[in-house]
Amino acid sequence: MSKFKRINLTVKSKTLDKLLNEYISGHAPSRASVAASCFVSKVTSGKVADALIGSGFMDGRIFSVGDERPSTHLLFNDRSSILIFDLSTSVYKMCVVNPTGKILLSLSHIYDPEVSFEDNLNIFISRNGLKLKKSKLEFAAMSVLYADACRQAQLDPRISFLPPISLSAYVEEVIFTILGKRVSSHLTLSEAIGEAVKFKAIKLYGNGKGISYIFIGNRISSFHVYENGSAAICSPENILSREELSDLAHIRMIPKEKRDALFIRIADFMDAAFSPSVLLLASDVFSPDSDTADKICRKLALTGTSAPVIYTRDSSFPIEYVGAARYTLLTVIKKYITSNNS
Q1: Residue 339, strand partner residues
Q2: What residues have CB less than 8 Å from 286, skipping those under 6 apart?
Q3: Rg (the chain; Cα; Å)
Q4: Left, alpha or beta for 245 (phi > 0: left; psi -120 to 50: alpha)?
Q5: Which of 4, 65, 213, 246 has the maximum number of C-beta atoms within 10 A of its C-beta?
Q6: Percent of the chain beyond pLDDT 90?
Q7: Are 262 and 247 a contacting pair, CB within 8 Å?
Q8: Whether the Cβ atoms of residue 274 and residue 209 lie closer than 8 Å to each other
């Protein structure tokens, strides 16, 4: 028996879609704030809020924001969490994630290059699937994350651990065979971050020119996500010198100063190309830290432009998980909260 309740509303389908999207956007929206954003009456907004609470996807909490009077705000409950399979790096992860970004469970598998991708995938899902079952955590649906296609992956056979999203049917079948559940969504990292932007899960500071993402580790990649959620995929290896490419090939052995220098080099390029308001740094080999961020800020300050807000994995929630969770949850919600007025 489903833990969610089906509810049919006398709200036009297009209006319902718009309201549902707004209710799972931002943080703790109220009936009044959603009514204002969607240009509908508080009564219509309230019908959808009541349905989200009544169906079991969200909870209502009464509190005030700023000088406003106390009112009911909607928050995600843990039943609405999403099980995410992150296959975007050499460290595969299986995480139960609340759409706010809270990670309820994180299980990992370090890719073993001595065996095939197929064996790694089976080991990762079967071993961690048992741990997931023992945890007895609830989740509403499943999503799989993939690395964005890059020229380096096409040229370098060492990056065989990165399954492209074109293998989604195969990945889904393996997951279904082992766990007995179907995957609801397949997204690349840039698509997931794009969804986070569209769902207002991250604030775009200052000039609001989007988010740039830089990954340096067993692979190198970068992309920029615009305010509308669309993305531009880059080839950062093209701007690196022969010495820097050599450092990249020996990333595990080079000192932190050289690792930071690679981040600075690519950050400088992304800033010149896109002027992002937010910069995300990530790696599967080491952890770019506040010192890395400070060095980037000092470098960009020399150009006379304001530096973006810089997040590392240690200083922020995984925004790609939030985007994937909210996107996937919305597909589930639309199956339970429907309109009888087209």
Answers
A1: 9
A2: 217, 251, 256, 259
A3: 21
A4: alpha
A5: 213
A6: 80
A7: yes
A8: yes
